[in-house]
Amino acid sequence: MVVIADGDPVTRKLVESVVENCGVEVAVAEDGEEALRLIQAHLPSLAVLAVSMPLRTGWEIGKELQANPRTSKIPIIFLTSHTQEKDVLEGFLSGATDYLFKPFSPSDLQGCVQAILDRT
Amino acid sequence: MTALHAAQYWALLLALAISLALNSLVFSAIIVAKLVRERRETALAALQAQLTDLLVSISNADETFSVERNRVTIGDRVILLPPPRGLVGSTTRELILSFIATLKGEGRERLTLILESAGYVDATIQGLKSRSELRRARAASILGGIGSARALPALTERFLLDPSQEVRLVAAEALAALRDIPGIPGALLFLEAARQPTRYQEARIANVMSKFGASVVGPLEDALSDPDARIVNFALDVLIEIGLVLHPDKVIAITKHSSAQVRSRAIELLGAVGRIDAFEPVSEAMSDSAWFVRLNSVKALIAMGTPRDEAKRARYFRALETALHDERWAVRRNAAAALAAADDKGRLILQRALTNEGLAALHMYYLRRGQVVPTIT
Asked: Given B52, B60, B101, which is nearest A106 (Cβ)?
């Protein structure tokens, strides 16, 4: 399973479609709290998270997952419009496996998701 | 008297009846308006849901796709887009725009093509001719978001000729969004900036210009010799944003400018582009009378890194050592950070300096951050 979380409905829908094309089950969250709950409940193979979300940021979720041995190995892709160098650094410090910028190409995202799923 | 009472009675009854009738009329109108609004919202929500599914499929480059006027075919599905008018038209356009803003690559190109083919781009271009300044600015902004080359002539015209400054600025931002398409020369944008009265608008134009990259560096460097310090500062802002200098001598020349702000920005630019050939003027700026020029001098030296040449190396460390005793805390702190990050010689200078009574505060700064200055063995 892959957990997707983004406050923007258009991005959620697009990412959901891309991940489903990889042939995996998807759980979708609209905010950070819901995302964390889904991840902790399902221990997915991957989480695709926005950085700016209501209730909790993607970075906060990443750090929380890292701190818990049950969830620390879950790969995370941040998909975000925070494109500055310090943002990317913060993303990787929060446990990112990959860090993609918006606007994004669906085929790039699909390649990235597939590569991580193949590894896990 | 009795007749008068009767007339008053009937007048009262009549007024009551009229009032009741009016009330029921208003009430019915409210109910009807509410029903109409609900039906319209339901219809719009249905349209949005249908369109969202379609747009997700269109964004997927693997699906076959064609468009003819407002008829869009994706795989084996066909949808007729509504005309680009009214609430339905604007809802459709907004939804497609939100997809365009999220996507790049083929999916985005397809969506732009749909808006062109179904008449949305032309309808928005018409909006550029509106009498309302607000509508013209909105149309320009939407066209920037759509990213259609078809809008280029109309946007360029608004940028150059619109009587409203705000519309000219939004048109410039839209043109910058279309920067992949050869458009107006960068120098024109610069002239436009000179007509902007506020710092905020200048900053927006600077942002626009920086997106044109190397093509505007030449005109900006020429502007560094402008007699108006405001123009020079503006040109420096954009050059710092672009991070490129083709003729460093033009920047070095203004490190002696009468305006401290210009000197400071010039030093910042030389540091930002890491020109080691600008080492002399940058290190000289360490003795500038304005503290923020000295601060930028330290930061520029950090950005340039420790020189390999022995003579320059000695001057580099001497400049930073002087900065350690600067009257301004920010200058001292940055100089300390530069020395700590340099090689053993730098750290030795810092360690020696920190034992001086006058630098106790700096020492405290390091201790508070848990960064003890390394001991040289």
From this structure: B60
- This model of the complex carries an ipTM of 0.84
Q: What are phi and psi of A100, to 5 degrees?
A: -110, 145
Closest CA to B173 of B209, B202, B148: B209
Look up the pTM and report it.
0.68
Which one of B97, B100, B103, B180 would you mutate to disrupt binding with A, by most A Cβ within 10 Å of its Cβ?
B103
Neighbours of B106 (CB within 10 A): 17
According to the model, what pLDDT value does residue B196 have?
A: 65
- Find out whether A29 and A35 touch, Cβ atoms under 8 Å: yes
What single letter denotes the amino acid at residue B246? Answer: L
The string of DSSP letters for B304-356 reads H---SSHHHHHHHHHHHHHHHT-SSHHHHHHHHHHHHHS-HHHHHHHHHHHTS
d(CA B195, CA B189) in angstroms, rounded, equals 10
**pLDDT number for residue B213:** 76
- Give A-chain residues touching B101 at CB under 8 angstroms: 103
Contacts of A14 in chain B (CB under 8 A): 56, 59, 99, 102-103
Helix, strand or coil for residue A41?
helix
Rounded Cα distance, A45 and A39, in Å: 9
What sign does the CA torsion over B85, B88, B94, B99 have? negative
Which residues of A are less than 8 Å from B99 in CB distance? 10, 14
How many angstroms separate the first and last alpha carbons of chain B? 121
- Pinpoint the alpha helices (H) of B60-85: none
Amino acid B58: pLDDT: 82
Residues of A in contact with B59 (CB under 8 A): 14, 17, 106
As a whole number of angstroms, the distance between CA B121 and CA B202 comes to 29
- Listed in sequence order, the residues at least 6 apart from B99 whose beta carbon sits closer than 8 Å to its beta carbon are A10, A14, B55, B59, B107, B108, B111
Q: Give B49→chain A minimum CA distance, Å.
A: 11
Asked if the bond preceding A103 is cis, omega within 30° of 0, the reply is yes
* Chain A interface test: which of B48, B52, B55, B59 (most A C-beta within 10 Å): B59
* Nearest-Cα residue of chain B relative to residue A15: B56
Over residues A47-90, the pLDDT tens digits come to 999 999 999 999 999 999 999 999 999 999 999 988 877 788 88
The answer, for B104 touching chain A at a CB cutoff of 8 Å, is yes
- Span B196-227, pLDDT tens digits: 667 677 777 777 777 777 878 888 888 899 88
pLDDT for B285 equals: 92
Per-residue model confidence as pLDDT tens digits over B308-341:
888 888 888 988 888 888 888 888 888 888 888 7
B98 to chain A, minimum CA–CA distance in Å?
7
